[in-house]
Amino acid sequence: MTFLQRTPARALAPPLLVLVAAAPPFLLGPYAVSTFTQILAFSLMVMSIVLLMGIAGMPTIGQAGFFGVGGYATGLLADRLTTSAPTLLVIAAVAGGLVAAATGWLLVRVKGTYLLMLTLAIGELLALVAIARVTLTGGSDGLANIPVLTLWPGAELRHVAVVYWYIAGVVLLMAALIALIIRSPFGRALLGVRDNEPRMRALGYSTGLYKYAAFTASGAIAGIAGSLWVTQTLFISPSDMSFHTSALALLALIVGGSQSLWGAVAGSALIIVVQNMLPISMQGLGPFVLGVVLVVVVYALPDGFAGIRNPLRRRHAT
Amino acid sequence: MSAATQWFDANLITVINGLAYGLLLYTLAIGLSLVFGMLNLLNLAHGTFFLAGAYAAAVLVAPGGAWLSWVLALSVALALGAVAGVGLTAVTRPLARRGHMAEALLTLGISMAGSSLLLWVFGADVRSVPAPAGLDGGVTLFGDPYPVYRLVLIGFGLVIAVLAEVILERTMTGAVVRAIVADADIVRTLGIDTRKILYGVLAAGSALAVVAGVLGGPLLGAGPGLDGHVLLIALVVVVIGGMGSARGALIGGLLIGQVQTLGTALAPEVAPFLIFGAMALILVVRPHGLLNRAEATA
């Protein structure tokens, strides 16, 4: 396959992707479409972990905290400020990024499983804030009665298909942005930090600053994911930002492969479908199934499903 | 009478409560800390072990808290924990070459599956555990009535602490354990078989987690969500004390015990944040905990 032959196919990929992404409301019933919507919103949180863990090499199990920050910011301000979804999206991104920036400085000096532990603590702390500020957040019961958001004045995000297109559009744009970040010099430097931090420091990179920036960016992206989630569900509660949710997001990442944005969507699909589709008799056993899946994947598929598709696909900084 | 003594008089009972709670946390956290320090294995199923112990107590302890049923619950807990610990070594060993992240993820899978099973078997209701017969009353302590069982907890925790101190500081095995925490490769190079010791520590640490669940039963009950809560607090204790340090786990446990009970008594609004505040503060000053000489590595 020569370079010339490959170019047309490459150029065709984005429009095809948009077509495929836009198709579900035309083909499926409302329940399936809303399931797809949830999968996409959740997958954006998983993509934020791809950036952090797959690229920067910083494992996290607290990402749901930032997801919740974005979700609560959206839910609380929809009542008080504006119902404009894009505006709330930007606010959620800023909120997620700020909270990540406020907590991330603790993390840049530690590595590996120790880091995993600290992110867990930070995520739970954020969930505690939501539980404790009852008058503002509704405490453990969560934030209900969030008004329907609008795309612009008068265009309500009420219809299942409209909500889907809006969320799919944002997730596609964000995925493209994350892919760009990964390919940028910044992303390359993060790969270098992941693979050999002392070497990068010797080359003159301020590795701590790079990791801090990656953590902040990933918090902002998770905040956007939370905003999208609330746009669809019109509800958020502390359990959405708990250890359990972070664990599910991490599971989605591991199942999909830690460096694959496609894998993030596939892994999220598995989780949302298992959560939503188990027969009533097995309702409580969702986490059991997912736990077993995680054990099997850890044993059998070192790179998740992305590793099956193309075992030779390994991204390394060159 | 100075202001300090006055304050102390008013809050003495709370301080003693915190001591009992802190020693319970220590019993829970020491295994987590040693296992992490020796193997770099972050056991996210540690809280599930604790909850299994609490449920074992809820099921096995007779309504009156008969001594025999307590002995039974504790024996079952010890056996369960030891088996779980050895099982954990067995399932993580094939992953050793793949790194510690894979091991941590495996324990995450185990904890998800485990808590889901516990919920399925025992239902969503919180169950209570009666204190041992004759220890469910109160004694007069500094002019106030005080539950005897908490004093028993303090006694038990102190016994564990003394035992751990003696074993780790005064025996050859303990020296090897501390050496493994410092540098496992060097210990292996010296020709010492580290595997037996690792199995032993994992079994003992996991057993202590399950036993802590039994002992904590009368205080905390047994219900869904307790596993995650307890795991988190144990992690904070371990981070504060320093990974792989038994004394660190003791100091961390006592500190968090006080912070939580005094915080709940004096400033219920901010109590939940205090333990994380304490952790953040200590990490700023000592990134690897109070008593950790080793570097935290990936």
Automatic annotation (TrEMBL), chain A:
Pfam families: BPD_transp_2. It is a multi-pass membrane protein. Keywords: Cell membrane, Membrane, Transmembrane, Transmembrane helix. Its main location: membrane. One of its GO terms (molecular function) is branched-chain amino acid transmembrane transporter activity. The keyword Zinc does not apply. This is Branched-chain amino acid transport system permease protein.
From TrEMBL, chain B:
GO terms for biological process: amino acid transport. It is found in: Cell membrane. CDD domains: TM_PBP1_LivH_like. It is a multi-pass membrane protein. GO terms for cellular component: plasma membrane. The chain crosses the membrane at residues 12-34, 41-61, 67-92, 104-122, 148-168, 197-217, 229-250, 262-285. InterPro entries: ABC_transp_permease, BCAA_transport_permease. Belongs to the binding-protein-dependent transport system permease family. LivHM subfamily. This is Branched-chain amino acid transport system permease protein.
